[in-house]
């Protein structure tokens, strides 16, 4: 079967404080080799916290 033309994979973003998976995003694994890290709003913590790329 032919492979898809997209090299992006769906990843989960996990809160560092409460460890809940709050967000999903795409990452091109050929271009970006490091783990993604964003400062986003966590609804369970009710504040902006650091969200890192989680495991599958």
TrEMBL record:
GO molecular function, one term: structural constituent of ribosome
Gene Ontology annotations of biological process type: translation
UniProtKB keywords: Ribonucleoprotein, Ribosomal protein
InterPro entries noted in UniProt: Ribosomal_bL33 (IPR001705), Ribosomal_bL33_sf (IPR038584), Ribosomal_zn-bd (IPR011332)
Classification via Pfam families: Ribosomal_L33
CC per GO annotation: cytoplasm; ribonucleoprotein complex; ribosome
Domain of life per record: Bacteria
Family: Belongs to the bacterial ribosomal protein bL33 family.
Record-linked HAMAP family: Ribosomal_bL33 (MF_00294)
Name of protein: Large ribosomal subunit protein bL33
Lineage: Bacteria, Candidatus Joergenseniibacteriota
Name of the encoding gene: rpmG
